[in-house]
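ENTRY TYPE: paired fold submission
RECORD: A
CONTENT: sequence, then structure tokens
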Amino acid sequence: MPQSSDIALIGLAVMGQNIVLNMNDHGYKVAVYNRTVSKVDDFLNNEAKGTKIVGAHSLEELVKLLKKPRRIMLLVKAGAPVDEFIDLLVPLLEPGDIIIDGGNSFYEDTVRRYKALKEKNILFVGSGVSGGEEGARHGPSLMPGGAPEAWPHIKAIFQSIAAKVDGGVPCCDWVGESGAGHFVKMVHNGIEYGDMQLICEAYQLLSTLGLNNDQIAETFTAWNKTELDSYLIEITANIFKYKEEDGSYLIDKILDTAGQKGTGKWTVLSGLDHAAPVTLITEAVFARVISSLKEERVAASSVLAGPGDVKFTGDVEKAVEDIRHALYASKIISYAQGYMLLRNVSEQFKWKLNLGGIALMWRGGCIIRSRFLGNIKNAYDRNPSLSNLLLDSFFSDAVKKAQAGWRRTVALGATLGIPTPAFSNALSFYDSYRSARLPANLLQAQRDYFGAHTYERVDKPRGQFSHTNWTGQGGTTASTTYNA
């Protein structure tokens, strides 16, 4: 039946299939296509059997199945495959038709595609999709951005399939123009890296205190009933309970080397590009890198000395509570850093990101969904121009209450020789951010001494730069100043 489908989806891997089934559940007729055409028939004869979903064996056929304006969503591997499908689709489309990239694309690629398609009068949307396979099937968090003219044509579909909170509020709203949607998803993934690393450090410390897998599972289950209530804490408890058929714990058999797909690295590089100190996320990325050096670490373990045979002899219950405080305070830092990056880029690109609204989009469906995202929304409701989450009363009070246990936890790790790169970095960032004066005056003196890079003075107006001939032989010519 020509021109009867509401939307098309290209890419029938697990995420694509589940999004299609989700759309079908909500009353939309979906046309599907896959580069390996046999997957189309397999899907229609199995997972999609008995639904209204229709298949196409060519892009030409797919386009003919769609109502106008045509809406085509790509869920294919990021990078070249997205460009290849766009190039194949454009000659088949008309002005006002819509292409949606729902993959994990780098936001600068989305900006490029948005600009190129705008010249052809094709509306391009780059949408973050979070929640994994389960979220795609039953309600993901969706972060669409790009051509604003496209939003009225996809809003109903996206908000109907999205996760719902507070009795029906969809975890999906328009993010902003150009690459805003994929940028927000990238920052989401960066925060996810930080969250996961913090939980892993808590796990190692709990193990060092002598807790077994059952006790660790009980601990995370209890923590999930506190302000740490979140999807990641919930699944962590479940992981520690999981046993194989022989009764052994699966967690103990998993090799301690972590993989990554690049979104954490993109967040770190964007932080450098846009002067946002996402230091905790950076540590989380490098923690995965060092975990991959398994053979080197094993060899080093027999050569490099630690603090000796030091064992914990204190109050285990109190130490567990300290670790909980450290995890909560550090989690706040992770979000604060992510939001610093969102704010900086929003201002630079004039995207006008709704920072409180983004928190609402993350409350359901996505991997970092947690209780305190509502507190982030409240913080921006109180002060839409808030420069840092830590300056909001809720979060400053929360960190103040957690601070003593946080410091004891970092000290415990150092004493026992347990690495806590994310906990330690979060605390270091906090102490740096709250310091009215840092030793960067010496750093500037050094730069001026060896490179005539100039410095500002406390007794002169900001923006007025000075240079000193430190040795009497360097002259008075200064290097060009710049900000980075």
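RECORD: B
CONTENT: sequence, then structure tokens
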Amino acid sequence: MVGEAEDESNSLDKTSVVQSDTFKVRIAQAGDAPPCMVLLVGPPNEIGRQWPIESSDYVIGRSPTAHVHIEDRSLSKSHAKLVLQGGEVSIIDLESTNKTVVNDKILASLQGYRLKNNDQIKCGNIIFKFLERGNIETVSVAQTFNKALIDPLTGINNRGALNNQGVDLFNKSRILGSPLAVIVFDIDFFKKINDTHGHVAGDYVLKELARIVRESLIRGNDYFARYGGEEFCLLVMGSPIKQVEEICERIRRTIQDSSFIYEGQNIPVTISAGYSMITETDQSWNDVFKRSDAAMYTSKREGRNKVTGG
């Protein structure tokens, strides 16, 4: 019984140390955290999203070019502006249609109002919370929100995150006149990999493929996500079609030439890819995605391990 009591005591001590260390890490991270806006009420898949305020003149609005962009008709295109000065943040209503309200106080247009920690800001039907610099809640909220957008197996963006980013980039492409490409690729004969080597080996292939693409094959501003199962998607902004074709081919060739070794066995892995560019007739980012997805299935029907444009 004494031994068990000692073991339990040791276990509790270890747990306490871990919790204490974790808390210290969060405190350290919070010390570096800039002031930010957190979405409390708005599109369900964006609740908890943060916008750090690291320079002056951050516009809140419906326009895709707004720094704090929310797609909601109750917001004006340029609804309000955040001004950072001397470490303090003020908000200015930009003559919005549905007004800017801070803690039930309706702001006069074009007049600054200094924000305080935990102030609630209502723009149209959208509600934010303001967190001052160094607030530990910034870290915990960010961790929770990021966890909801990350695929736990591969560590890259998940389908929900992809849909959010797809809408944002589609709108920006329309406004700025910049090309947008959607690349979709799928692991060939993935079921056979699972059946032959086991599901743990299949998980290894998914993780290793995601790592190779993330670390070696995409640029910092490209958006990479696991769409579902063995299917991945890459959003490329600002590149002409010739460059998009080269990106697709480089990914296909690199995966084909990579070694996927699990428990001493080399697992041959190839992908089938499809891509499409935004066009004037597209009504949503999903239109571009569907063409890319269809092109990917054409690659599969025509022998796999190839790239097809849609």
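NOTES ON RECORD B: Confidence is low (pLDDT under 50) at residues 1-31. Residues 2-31 form the longest helix (30 residues).
STATUS: closed
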